[in-house]
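Let us work through a complete example step by step.
Step 1: write down the sequence.
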Amino acid sequence: MKPAPFEYDDPQSVEETLALLAEHGDEAKILAGGQSLVPLLNFRLARPGRLVDVNGVGELDHLSSENGLVRIGALVRHAALERSAEVARRVPLLAQAVRLVGHVQIRNRGTVGGSVAHADPAAELPAAFAALDARYRLRTAAGERVVASDDMFVTYLTTALAPDELLVEIEVDAPPPRTGSAFVEFSRRHGDFALGGAAVLVTIDDDGACERARIALLAAASTPVRAREAEEWLRGARIDGATAAEAAALAVAGVAPPADVHGSSEYRRELAATMVRRALVEAAARV
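Step 2: predict the structure and record it as tokens.
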């Protein structure tokens, strides 16, 4: 199939992009990597009147780390994040997660900001960012605001972005010392969307007990899910197989994943628990 007719803009700066969004509002749709949007256009599930192509906006393509803060421009490609030695050193969870995004061709074109803005609950990066308590920098022609990770994802394929707002940057604080991380998911075939998965960070104190835990689930609800009760329960515990299993059961206790042809809600909940258990053990082993 082919997309419905649309107007096309090719801005070369953030200011030009914001002016177009302010002028056209709901009619406009941002085109970055296009790995999610183009299929929707071709199947006519999305019919924007205007595409605003930001691939020429070089200021959105930056990746830096300073004083424990990692800044990721919205136009950074998945492949660039995957290859970054600084990201692997400062925030290994992101490196672990991005390797599981689609296939090489998709990672070469897909963008970090596009994955966030598309807000698929089965996508890897939104879940990883949820575990990392990422902050999202949004801009309009009138100003800027920073949205916390908990407030960014509203429901399925829906974020807090207003029609005239542009996601320009994601900020992540590097985890503290003695922190291990793991990103674990299960899909029917390599490159498929995950049926369940977990992003985990654990910080271990000098006595071998868990000082801090962060657990986020993907494909478990209409948005990434933070398992805060399980995180609190793990504080002071020594993470082994039994502890991880108990924490995993607690992490999915209130979760009711949507059922589909690949599995019932009960199956997906058990799968999520298995992913959390594996990720906790793996993360603790990496400290």
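Step 3: interpret the result. The first strand starts at residue 7 and ends at 9.
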